[in-house]
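Appendix B: a complete holo record

For completeness, this appendix reproduces one full record from the ligand-bound portion of the collection. The bound molecule is flavin-adenine dinucleotide. The inputs are the chain sequence and the ligand SMILES; the output is the full three-dimensional arrangement of the complex, encoded as structure tokens. No fields have been trimmed.
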Amino acid sequence: MHNQERFLRAMQEAGYGERVHHNAPMAEYTSFAVGGPADLLMEASTLDELVAWMTMARQAQVPAMVLGSGTNVLVSDLGIRGVVILNACRQYAISDDGLLRAESGCLFVELAREAVRRGWAGLEWAVGIPGTLGGAVVGNAGAYGGYIGDLLVRARLLGPDGSIRTVCKSELGYGYRTSMLKREPLTQPRTIVLDAELLLSRGDAALLAERARQVTDQRRAHTPSGCCAGSTFMRTDQYPAGFLIEQAGLKGYRLGGAQVSPHHANFIMNTGGATASEIAQLIALIQERVWQDFAQRLEPEVQFVGEWPARESAADTPGRKG
Ligand SMILES: Cc1cc2nc3c(=O)[nH]c(=O)nc-3n(C[C@H](O)[C@H](O)[C@H](O)COP(=O)(O)OP(=O)(O)OC[C@H]3O[C@@H](n4cnc5c(N)ncnc54)[C@H](O)[C@@H]3O)c2cc1C
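The structure of the chain with flavin-adenine dinucleotide bound, as generated:
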């Protein structure tokens, strides 16, 4: 029997058959609003479902990945082979000593707003960051000098071998917008974040709300609105990526429906009707120009997900490490 059929049969036998969507258009699940179909897609609302489905997929040898809000990925026009599990596991609690325990599908912005509302300090910088806690833990999300890695105490992980273990922050190999989880190859079974604990501290609710309002205003002023995935590239050791792109004369540059934002050069926008291929080509063109002009390598912050033709992969572009 074909692996995918074996997985579908296991899902049916476990009573989950009706939860599976076939050929799900990923453009509907990503902030870039591009991406072809995933073979199979399900939305997990409990961690038991998430673990069970991931385990069934691995037993049937079907590739499976977890997607949060899809705000930091570029999904190929060819789509994703295998299973995509959308993470809607959203239980959380804040204890009296400020420990925020949250499932990885919680929306990061909601956790931040709730912490501020209850007078817990630490997450004010995160009030405008889209995406889930899981995506934030993987990518060491940060803004305005704050990083999730600074607050994280421990996380519970589902390993590629099916084991569940708790790790502390030092084991996650955090760096600027990266972690040992983000560095795992996308082509192999990856570690999944199930839940995480962040340590907050007591603060004055009114002052925290004021700080959150300032952050929100700053974000509104500096973030282009529209379909994008936030910052496309990480900053280099010396320069912000947007500065290099602007100096290379590419601010506002268009390639098909993809455009370097005229407001913030590190944002690539889908102006309507862009394909993933056009966005990938624009990413490659920016990398090439910045390498030629300044000998600076721009590393995408956005992750390339799905079935990519080899020549469109960011790994093949000049100036890229490795
Ligand atoms: C307008 C805009 C502004 C942004 N501003 C910021 C900002 O200020 N700072 C910042 O850091 N980022 C920013 N981002 C990027 C994005 O919001 C963050 O990277 C966010 O943490 C991604 O979360 P997500 O749930 O959308 O992840 P996704 O895009 O769904 O996934 C990203 C990667 O993480 C993996 N992943 C997701 N969940 C899990 C899990 N539970 N376990 C294991 N792997 C998982 C996915 O497989 C994928 O490889 C911005 C994005 C947008 C669109």
